[in-house]
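Board work, copied verbatim: SDR family oxidoreductase
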Amino acid sequence: MNKTLLSFGHGYSAQALSRKLAPEGWRIIGTTRTPANFAAIRASGATPLLWPDENIVPPLEAATHMLISAGPDASGDPVLAKLRGSIQAVAPNLIWAGYLSTTGVYGDHNGDWVDEATPVTPSTDRGEWRALAEAEWASIPGLPLHIFRLAGIYGPGRGPFAKVRKGTARRIVKSGQVFSRIHVEDIAQVLAASIKRPNPGAIYNVCDDDPAPPQDVIAHAAQLLGLPSPPEISFHQADLSPMARSFYAENKRVRNERIKTELGVRLKYPTYREGLAALVTAA
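↓ predict structure ↓
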């Protein structure tokens, strides 16, 4: 069977998945809003499609699998805004559809653990937009939807090393604050595992095993580089952008057992320590 993945918003995480699938003979079509992204999309093994400028209907009708990583905003989900009827029409022909959401839909839990059964109670605008988009995608009849709630993403080109090297990194400390993280290669392997074991309606938290204070991650990055650890700065004294400050408004530990028990995933980078070590080795 010919397998075709149509990827809406073919960015960092989607490109990691296409690098896994392309060598297996998949046809992958990745949408983007700007030709400047064509080279990166092609490098991942996908064919770029300028959308919404170009006709999406033939790729949509040919798709056996669909990935949505284009993010919503205050006006709603950008893909559904233009294509809900078309997607609903082809839904029965799809084997698998994946929506990349965020653990931000859980809101703040004062450092307690959450899992996929935890009620969705977003406390930020971005979390609310994602929760609404999840519900809208889930309402499409016949769509074999899988929702992936991603923790903070890092990987090649995304990590603390650049700021640590420049001396601009800060170890911002807020008492009891932890964040969950996930390496982009582990996102790709979770998605690939789900494609092999489809379970429409499933929701998966995609994060590593070690929710950790952000200042510890920065300190470990400095240690790996052989540089002094940046000084600690109190969260209340730090001059943060509104977006950066909003991240600290939520504090939770995210469980990931379902990706292991249902999908058989064994994380390549179970904590930030392994992930950062691999990044500094590859740099």
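The chain has a mean pLDDT of 96.
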